[in-house]
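RECORD TYPE: inverse folding
INPUT: structure tokens
STRUCTURE:
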């Protein structure tokens, strides 16, 4: 199965569609759901305009967003030569991971926020040796600021873009100020509007609700098994990335370091933002899929990648069974 995604043939796209339907086969039995909290503009839009739609539209919406995100991430990694050859293993990993937990099989603001994360990655990968970085930096900050307004826990991305600027480009105070200006511009416009309309007391609705604490997790053996399979896949991906990284140029290494920092920082999201747990952890999928793709791509023999895929398939089958 894994071998089918090690190239970029046109048939791979149809295989990704088939894989998404297989991973989320539970939608043929139980309707797609929307889970929202009061954590940004996306929650309001989903609750008012998307939740009333028939379940078949919600199913199509979830699968459509999933495929667009997976394929777009894969194209970004291929275009930036993150692997030694073009492939679809990142898209395969992305789709597969979404079937690991029931909380990742529903439409949530965090799931949609992955679109912003991939968009920001595209911007950050352009920073190295860019001839006109100021426009790029302002636009990157603008996207991050907009994503925070749409979904508050994406505020963690502010640290990611600051790290990326520090690693990818030499220090220039003007570039840092432009990046920060772009980041605060959406909030500045909202505060201005609220002030002019005499509704400044509503500003808390547009700010992240930070509350450090332990999130609520369900103690279940299959949940632990899914987390273990995900952890093993990540460690394997990191191992094969480390081996391949010795032959990578410095620009690609810096891009991978951005993904690694993004992964490490996002691990803390459930512990920092109020009312977040597994639903918000879905934002980990973007960096996870990128690293796990290495474990599917680089081994010369297919035994180990296929074993990882079979373990993932076992988790997915149980998940579908429990949600069906």
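DESIGNED SEQUENCE:
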């Amino acid at each position: 199965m894994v071998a089918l995604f090690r190239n970029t043939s046109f048939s791979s796209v149809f295989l990704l569609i088939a894989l998404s339907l297989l991973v989320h086969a539970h939608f043929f039995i139980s309707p797609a759901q929307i889970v929202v909290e009061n954590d940004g503009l996306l929650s309001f839009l989903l609750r008012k305009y998307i939740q009333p739609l028939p379940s078949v539209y919600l199913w199509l919406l979830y699968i459509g967003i999933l495929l667009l995100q997976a394929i777009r991430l894969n194209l970004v990694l291929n275009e930036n030569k993150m692997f030694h050859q073009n492939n679809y293993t990142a898209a395969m990993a992305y789709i597969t991971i979404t079937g690991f937990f029931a909380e990742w099989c529903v439409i949530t603001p965090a799931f949609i926020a992955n679109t912003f994360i991939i968009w920001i990655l595209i911007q950050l990968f352009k920073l190295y040796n860019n001839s006109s970085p100021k426009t790029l930096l302002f636009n990157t900050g603008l996207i991050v600021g907009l994503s925070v307004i749409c979904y508050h826990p994406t505020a963690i991305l502010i640290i990611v873009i600051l790290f990326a600027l520090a690693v990818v480009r030499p220090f220039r105070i003007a570039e840092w100020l432009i990046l920060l200006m772009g980041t605060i511009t959406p909030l500045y416009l909202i505060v201005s509007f609220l002030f002019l309309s005499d509704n400044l007391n509503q500003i808390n609705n547009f700010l992240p609700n930070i509350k450090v604490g332990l999130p609520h997790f369900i103690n279940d053996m299959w949940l632990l098994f899914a987390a273990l399979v995900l952890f093993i896949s990540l460690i394997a991906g990191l191992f094969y990335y480390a081996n391949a990284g010795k032959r990578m140029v410095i620009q690609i290494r810096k891009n991978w370091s951005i993904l690694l920092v993004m992964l490490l920082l996002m691990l803390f999201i459930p512990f920092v933002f109020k009312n977040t747990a597994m639903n918000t952890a879905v934002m980990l999928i973007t960096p996870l899929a990128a690293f796990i793709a290495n474990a599917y791509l680089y081994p010369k023999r297919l035994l180990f990648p296929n074993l990882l895929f079979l373990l993932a398939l076992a988790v997915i089958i149980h998940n579908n069974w429990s949600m069906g």
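NOTES: The chain has one domain: 2-323.
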